[in-house]
Amino acid sequence: MNLLSSTTVFGFYTLLSRVLGYLRDILIAIFLGTSIYADAFFVAFRLPNTFRRLFAEGTFNAAFIPSYTDAKIKGEDLGKKFANEVFGLLLIFLIFLIIVIEIFTPFLVYIIAPGFYENSYKFNLAVEFTRITFPFLLFVSLSSLLSGILNTNNKFAAAAAAPIILNIILIFFLLISVYYDLNIAKNLSIGVTLAGILQFIALIIFTRKFYFPSIQIIFKFNYRIKKFFKKLLPSIFSSGITQINILVGTIIASFQSGAVSYLYYADRVYQINLAIAGIAVGTVALPALSKSIKSNDQKSVNQIQNRSVELSLLLSIPATFGLLIASRQIINSLFGYGSFQIEDVIFTSLALTFFSIGVPAFALIKVLSNFYFARDNTKLPFYISFLSMVLNILISVSLFKKYGFIIIPIATSISTWVAVFIYIVLLTRSGLINFENKYLLNFFKILIATILMCIFLYFSLDYFEDKFDYYYKFKLIYLLIVVGLSVTVYLFFAKLFGLFNLKSYKLI
Q1: Residues of the chain whose pLDDT is less than 70?
Q2: Distances (CA, A) of 152 to 55, 58, 103, 482
Q3: What would the DSSP string read from start to end of 38-85?
């Protein structure tokens, strides 16, 4: 397997999904803007979507793949038996959870968005939409198990492409709602759950060559099942700390009108890079790393870990500086239409600026935590993530009154960088990773290529300054041209510096 080529495949479908996601959010911005309907839908969508990211985007795999790999090594039948047992237990637990949530939805919404309680209409909308969207959790969680099986067998395309269904369905429901003058936010909520069902069906079809669900209800847990579920919650919390921090931010932001929407739109923009630099790299590397560790192949372990970190930085560092330079133009071009006013552009771009500082950290968390998960160590990542969350809450809560919603992306970025620093210190001191000199040299090459890209980007934005006026109709076209050329410049110099050598990313 080749880390670069597999990441490219995974990243392509993930990129396609995110592009469709941008189109979806552009349409939502045009027709809902930052209204109470937008805020209510984003809160309702935030929880199941957070679970989608936690389960489907590599976090569930952090616990499942090492255990499933271990079972498969001992026999295909044992691997299928383990998968069926996990499937059955997940099904029972999730159905129970959804029933409980549906009953106590008002309490849940109060926890997620306590600021909404002062506006009864807004609060009731959020409750209604949450009840509609929450069953999505059942199907996306079961889909994550199927994705884990595909990833273990080095079949990354289908798992990466499955989320495309969500965006297609939501775009369809939004356009239908606008055309027939229906309740947009409510129909979007219905679309979320429907998309989860279709995604699950699609993955069953793609997985049937390796596995087909057969519900096995067990009353006596064997050691493998106990070990898996013991790892599951810590791994979800640890690997998904960025999404948990965003959820915490949503809770705090609910006390300021429009802030939930500002953070949502800003979060959506940097997620496209996180999907490739963090999720794609981490997802692709984890099965190979688990196999190498269990085979006691230390050379392969070092290779996978070093190249994963390098590839993550290769993709995330230029994104950080690009977002810092062009945050206003990006938000304006993507969302600056219809109900999304100039003021909304300013506040959302400000949030994006501070989120962008943390982009490499958001990506590295996905990669570095896997180094422990592959070794069946979920405790240490859990402690690091918990510390990061506490730090995030302390900064956000203590300074929210003074600085408003903008402290939330600042706190999220700071707390995630602290977590990355702790990871690196502990990994190096314990001897679990050895950063070789050639990889450190490549890091400086990445910085040089990024600087050259930024110079081009800065002067391009300056040259087309009038094309990024809020009222200019074709600003998105110019954004795509400028971004496309800037990425090309970066890739050119990265290739020139030898950073995209396919052979060097050969893992096993």
Answers
A1: 1-4, 6-7, 50-62, 216-220, 236-243, 275, 277-279, 500-508
A2: 16, 12, 37, 38
A3: HHHHHHHHHHHHHHHHHHHTTHHHHHHHHHHHHHHHT-HHHHHHHHHH
Cβ proximity of 18 and 296 under 8 Å = no
Residue 166: half-sphere exposure toward Cβ, Cα within 13 Å: 29
Structure tokens at 507: 């893992």
Output phi, psi for 65, to 5 deg: -60, -50
The vertex-414 CA angle with 252 and 43, nearest 5°, equals 30
Q: How far apart are the first and last CA of the chain?
A: 5
d(CA 445, CA 449): 6
Angle, to 10 degrees, between the axis of helix 437-463 and the axis of helix 298-335? 10
CA-based nearest residue to 246, from 375, 367, 354, 327: 354
The pTM assigned to this predicted structure is 0.77
Within 13 A of 508's CA, how many CA atoms are on the CB side? 20
159-271-38-404 Cα dihedral, nearest 10 degrees: 150
Cβ(32)–Cβ(196) under 8 Å?
no
Helix axes 241-253, 105-112, angle to 10 degrees: 90
Task: For residue 334, give the H/E element and its range.
Answer: helix 298-335
**What DSSP letter does each residue of 214-258 carry, written as one string?**
-----SS--HHHHHHHHHHHHHHHHHTHHHHHHHHHHHHHTTSTT
Q: Where are the domains of the chain?
A: 3-505
Q: How far apart are CA 191 and CA 160, in angstroms?
A: 20
User: What's residue 149's pLDDT?
Assistant: 87
CA dihedral 18, 393, 141, 377 (to 10 degrees): 110
- In which region does residue 424 sit, left (phi positive, over 0), alpha (psi from -120 to 50) or beta (all else)? alpha
Based on its alpha-carbon atoms, the radius of gyration of the chain, rounded to whole angstroms, reads 22
CA 179 to chain centre: 31
